[in-house]
Amino acid sequence: MSAHPVSPNDAVPAAQADALPHNRLSYWLDRALVAIGEASAWIWLLVLAVVLTNVFSRFVLSRGSIALEELSWHLFGAALMLALAYGVVRDDHVRVDVLREKFSLRSQAIIELLAIAFLALPVVVMMVEALVPFAYQAFLYNERSQAPSGLPHRFIFKSVLPLGLTLLAIALLSRASRCSTLLFNFPRVFTAPTHARDRGHSQP
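Above: the chain sequence. Below: its structure as tokens.
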């Protein structure tokens, strides 16, 4: 099977000519994270359906539902947590380092690599370590809402918190490896199979 180098236009997160190059690790990790992010987007439709149902029940039928309110909060939180990694992969998250945009691509990669390695990734890992016991305890005690008619099995939503942050950590690791590929050519730039290139630029 013939192969071609991955150009910036073929990369997952960006179509810009100055996008970070992909390596084998980042290429496949980003594909998986994009698929998860796109699948989780359907949760927003569930959020909309639950909110509309609750509004109809409250203002038309005069029957408010605490369970529906809690479900809308939980679904909203789950959709947000599962979208964090997608935002990093697509580089669509909000940046506050306004000076960065004036730097060269190599300078940007140096700043990003240092920030991920010494700030973002350690903080996210510590959060995951703290939230796993938090979710496990809710499972052990079969925790439910404190409201009489609230939702049971709160460990389900609490488990989404460390899951979303774990995906975020993987996305940050992938992004850091892409910076390393640009700066040090390690890991090496990935050569994508022809069939993967032919699927279109919208896919990783």
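Helices lie at 24-40, 43-59, 66-90, 105-140, 155-184, 194-197.
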